[in-house]
Amino acid sequence: MTRRVWAVARLAAAVTIVAVIVVRLGAGPFLTGLRSVSAGTLLAACGIAIVTTSCCALRWWLVARGLQVPLGFGTAFAAYYRSQFLNSALPGGVLGDLHRGVRHGRDTGDLGRGLRAVFWERTAGQMVQIVVTVAVLATFASPVRGVALPIAVVCGLVALVAAAILRRGRMRYATSPPEVSTRSRRWARARLAVSTDLRDGIAAPRIWPGVLTCSVAAQAGHVVTFLIAARATGASLPFVHLLPLVMLVLLAAAVPTNVGGWGPREGAAAWVFSAAGLTAAQGVAAGAAYGALVTAASLPGAVVLGAGAVARRRRGRAPLTPVAVPSFRPHRTAAVLATEGARDG
Question: What's the whole-model pTM score?
Answer without folding.
Answer: 0.83
